[in-house]
Amino acid sequence: MSQQPLDTVTLSDPSLDTLTQELAAIQQTGSKRIALLGSRHVPIMHQQLIEMMSYALVLGGNRLLTSGAIGTNSAAIKGAMRADSNLLTVILPQSLSRQPKESRSQLENVIHLIENSKNDNLSLGEASAMCNSEIVARCDQLICFAFHDSNTLLKTCHEAEDLRKIVTLFYFD
């Protein structure tokens, strides 16, 4: 049985294409469109870390995309707004009036706010899944904070991977 030398790569290997794309994305200079999504049920310490991360990403010149809910998304909005509110886009699963009262005041200050009032007749779960798909379609990279049973978020991560986006998934549990 003949062995290939270690420095030989089979060009038909699909992982080679994925690896090449991920390396190119990591080395890319300039700004990226980074989606930051996650669970609504986040401990306060984690919210503070997410806020710092979004602040740093936006200070680095990246455009941040998120949705408008309490927890992860609220922390991401807070950090991005502190750094440069013009580099933040928030896409809502439904209209602003359908958002929780505790997040409306924050959302009203977002410059680039996109409402999906056409989804007001859907359940929040259905509307959120559609919203996450829209966010993933617009980003270069997805950072997600989830629990192992966060089905909608995990499905969003798989969708992003299928679209060959860079996905970083952090688990709370």
Automatic annotation (TrEMBL):
Name the chain's protein: DNA recombination-mediator protein A
The record lists the organism as Waterburya agarophytonicola KI4
Q: Taxonomy-wise, where does this protein's organism fall, top ranks first?
A: Bacteria, Bacillati, Cyanobacteriota, Cyanophyceae, Pleurocapsales
Database matches in SUPFAM superfamilies: MCP/YpsA-like
